[in-house]
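Entry:
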Amino acid sequence: MAYSKLRLAVVAVLGLATLHIFLSWHSKDLMQVLVQRVYVHNNWLNATNVSYPSLATNESKISLINISSGFKRFIPEKNNFWNHRQHQMFQLLDRLILNGTSSYSPSSNCIEAGMGPEVLEAYSFSESHGDFLRYMNCKDYSQRIDQPDKCDGDTFLLLVIKSVAANFERRQAIRETWGKESTVEGMKVRTVFLLGSASNVGDGPDLWRLLEFENRLYRDILQWEFKDTLFNLTLKDYLFLKWATVHCPHVRYVFKGDDDVFVNTPVMVTYLKSLSDDISSQLYVGQTIVNATPLRDKKSKYSIPKSFYDGAYPAYAGGGGFLYSGSLVRSLYKVSHYIPFFPIDDVFTGMCFMALKISLLHHSGFQTFDIEPKHRDNPCAHINLILVHQRSPRQTALLWRALRSPDLKC
């Protein structure tokens, strides 16, 4: 009898092991569902909602905004995941406006996006694609570091630099060169760095204490508790717009850029001072990228599955760095509630401006794909440029010093 029970137990264990191997090898869809459930339970990205300082209007309500007909026509009406969600929002807006409603109340809950079969393809691309799809509805995260007094009524230009906790050397190079807070060409310039979580859960050491010390020294960091990844740059932009709507309502211009660019700040300020009133109030300027379409190559970090989005991209400014009017901050914040988050932040920004019916202005001084290699170490090649991408912290320091040298002859 004991032998029979033992044999039965062995057979049962072998049967379960065989079933597990079969499911692991042959049931991709089931595994995707299992992975999804594990992420929902364990992934720290799903942060607790937080209350922000109230806006001029009720924080839970967003004023309705007219979406340009050009943007509505530009987005193909198809059943692909993002296209379908965007056209649902168009229809909702039309109904609200038709009914005479003045505001919209977006959900404040971090609700996981629906994972229908049509978008499960994205799980085979990368973890970042899966994370984005799961949490694209999540927009409220606790802010751990704030600078509520950064702007005042005299702030002419706010330099907003996207960074990550580990990039201290890049931030310091910017502080000591083109991002140093000062008066430039008679105009007040201020700087903030946008960061996600400093804990880097699963990706490296916890840098929170160092970041806290850095902020005590410089008071220029805005940091929220979300996973700082490529596809969360759209979320980072949204959180900045929400913050700036409250704390920088009167800033004249905003520069948004990466922490590996070089900016010729005096040239930028001179350009902004030269603008006429009609341009300065509706400004969106940078290196124009037109006729772009999604990359489908799974090896590219910018790849977008066709099941997620089908169509072209609107004209947008290269994300290395661009400028826009501070008076547009509130409108951009509002319209960002009516456009589903898109994984590529540059494209999402272009969509927001197109929805506001604001055209992108091309400026040859923005070189987000860099200049010719033979000129990259020549200060004279940079003297009239506004921005180049990329430069290391050492290159940034050397170039800034060279451009300020009285011995420079061009």
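Residues 2-26 form the longest helix (25 residues).
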